Batch of 3 targets.
Target 1
Amino acid sequence: TPVFEMYPIGFASLSEYLERHGLKVRIINVAMKMLKDDGFDVERLIQKNKALAFGLDLHWMVHVQGALALAEMIKKYHPHTPVILGGLSATYYHEEILREYPFIDFVMRGDSTEKPLLELLWTLKNGGDFKRIPNLTYRDGGNGIKVNPLSYVPENLNDIAIDYQHIMKKVVRYADPVGYQPFIDWYTYPVTAVFTCRGCSYHCKTCGGSSTTFRTMANRLKPAYRDPKLLAQDIFDVSSHLNAPIMVIGDIFQPGEEYGFSFLEALKKKRIKNHIAFEFFVPPNRRQLERIAESVINFNIEISPESHDEEVRRAFGRPYNNEALERMIGDTIELGCKRIDLFFMIGLPKQTYDSVMGTVDYCRSLLVRYQPYRRLYPFISPLAPFLDPGSMVFEHPERYGYRLLYRTVEEHRQALLSPSWKYILNYETEWMDRETIVASTYEAGRRLNRLKAEFGLIDPKTAEAVEKRIGLALQILKEIDRMMALPNRREREEALSEIIQKPLPLEIYSMSTVCEKKELEWPTQLIRMNLFKILKTLFSRKKREIRQ
């Protein structure tokens, strides 16, 4: 999945902020370069790039193996150059990281590190005391670790920009379109995102971005929002360069109707033709949906009910029932929504194998009910591979019916070397062990795939390809299980090595197994990029104004 090669969008805001304040920054998506070129030499890339400092993301824990391997490689070739780690997972493990991995020099903590990182880099460049830099964890020169207060927690996002024009110019400056590419097929499907906020008001139990987690881990007591007019301008700036979908990340009504309506009013004046996708944490009411329909020519909706079972959904932290969800779906269809995505999850509190299958049955009932509308897309996937560090379930697994299998950084790092996602999973629940989570994932995926084919949401060729991939995945998993059961370690490793030498089956097994990745794509225009406007931006010396 794209989680392997995707870098956090915060890299874009960090790059823009640092360059705005006089530093030169380059983003290099190493994973993307590896995917594009089997013979890509990572060590040579590291060796030839010299910098004041190297920054690596450890936002999603699934990146831990790659982040630490790169950090160690950087230290090998640049022993005197500081290596900085950032992201929410790095924030959670900041002291453990510095204690256990000597090739990491600094950890920047929190959800907003633009200003503290600037201070750190100027201090590294000009000299000074690290004690005064907020959000920083570092070594004291001996064996000790210093933890500065996490005091930089901005109240709004008006001084921060996800500026795609900035990224375009950087691509040209470094002649490196692959290094800046966010995921494997971005140039054929250039979807972008704008952010309403950092932080959250909700308390979803497994989420590393919940209100509770932000409070305890990032010292954020309330969400920081971007001014609604600036948010609308962000979308307009993207639409003037790209004719592709734009995701609005964060529920626009989370801070209240006034914020959402103000944003929609500003957006209405722009008359943007791009498909704009809104995500909602709770179903919006009819009035709110009418405002969206009035303001956006092509609007799409996505929401994550997690389960059809209201008890399971409530245990997870979603505070609404099926009646509210179904009312929203009906209203949205009436108002001309181009597409509705429903996301369900496997591995939730109080969820059993039968409950997972019940979710697929519920999806059938929705597709029957809302015929002939053929743009209601249900998806189901496991909570995988890791529970988010800092989430309520991670902190108190027994309280919520979970058993945590890996807790430390090194345990997660080693788990990622396992031959199957079944053995990477860092949890089981009272209701489903790892075996059952995996079995329910493939069976639910198979049933939902057939359901989509039956209702014409996917074509027969796609359905057949997914069916074959699921069958192959189960076959390979059975073979891996047999090998993992071998008592002799050497024999086991040789057997696993043999299966790894077959790249095609493993690729099929690991990529988009239970659905086709293209099913997640919103409509795009035939010409996806405004080349004239892009060229005009590239040759312009005018910098985008950042209004605070």
Note: Residues 505-511 have pLDDT under 50 and may be disordered.
Target 2
Amino acid sequence: MTKGKKITVWTLKGGEGKTTIACAIALEGDWAIITNDIHSDLTSALKEEHYLVLDPDQPLPTKKELEGANIIFDPGGFLDHRMIDAVKMSDYVIIPVSEFGKKLNTERFIASVLEIEQYNKNIVIVLNKIAQENVEEARKALKQLMSKEFKATYPIFEIKKNEAFEMMLNTGASISEIVKRGGLFRRWFQPVDGQLQKLIKFINGGK
């Protein structure tokens, strides 16, 4: 992995799994997470040296201070000026959406993309917590929505709903580590590990 990568995982709507995605990526490599959410779940999955929770009046480390470090920004709620700076310095901004097609989810998703587009056009969309049988239909609907609402089309990845993520948050073990335990863990969790690795490969410059 290239050193000095920066990504942001963000959406306006709560419950879309952004912090879970941030943790899943962080645990797969040499990443640290910075958040302005003082109630973040990061502390349950990551070692203390791998995350920074900003106090309300604490400034974001500068781009120069973060030079050479692989950082995931995990903003909570609306973007404050610090997290806008984080978005601007990010190589990619991941926007997760679950239950795509529901009115509220779709409206918040559109608003999230339009907000990020003001600061960074390198957007990656993740259909999160999705059932495998719904993937193709959701992808088709999402592409139609992008052509209607946005000036650009963005890469789409999917991550299925899986108990592996709850285990990851509770134990601090990466998804790939859980899969390597073999047996039923491999059978149950290997498909979602493959989806996660595909996303990580893209972020790291692969195809």
Note: The chain is about 40% helix and 15% strand.
Target 3
Amino acid sequence: MAYPPGLILSDKAENMNCEKVIAGILGMLDVDYESPAQMNELVNKCSTMLSQLAEECSETLLQFGQDLLERSNESEDMKYKFQLILKSLAQRHQPGALELNIAALLSRNIRDKEAYIDLIETFKSSRAIPALIHAIKTDNSVGEDEGLVRYKAIEALCSVGTKEVASIIIPYVKDSVYRVRGAAINFLRKFDISEAAPVIAEWLSQEENPTNLEYCIAALVHWKQTGSLPELREILTSGWIYNDKDLQRSVSEGILALEAINKGL
């Protein structure tokens, strides 16, 4: 790959001026582009170049990230640059990178929190839990992205969370967004939070997403909630279940499993 004049990469790290090189790479984004595809190509190129910087530049890279976070509300370009820097820092496992990522999640200037939640999983650190919970509680996304932050944050908690946060997740079994409900049920199943069983049982008849209904049934069988049998039998006779053979099979199997539990088999 050909690089712009003046950019010195890792094989000459001992002689390079890290600040100048990083500024040069980021400056490549300060151009007009004809299409999103062209912009994506340029972003990927800059990302590759940042990843090839010598280890000696990591501290300077972190300083750039801190500055860009403070200026992230100035323009979309600043946000793009900050995300590139943060991604590079995460790949390097640079000390301070996780704290910078957490700061982005907590910042009022940052709106697209989902990008930073994705990076949180790179660190797999429980130190991110408070920031993820904050993201869940403050998410007010609407439109096509409604619930996306809540969904991604709960998914991330499956990787870095503990059952101690279960009481916060349980109410999201009834979230207005189907993918959030699904993520919440999966989290509760993973950490075996049986206290969630009554909430899931209560929600069962209101769940209209086929995949989530299967999640609910699996959870109720897992926690041996035989009290849900009458409701499941009623669900089995409903029109939308009857017309979906795969879902009909899942509901039938759930009923059989709970009946077996009821009989002590």
Note: The two ends are 65 Å apart (CA to CA).
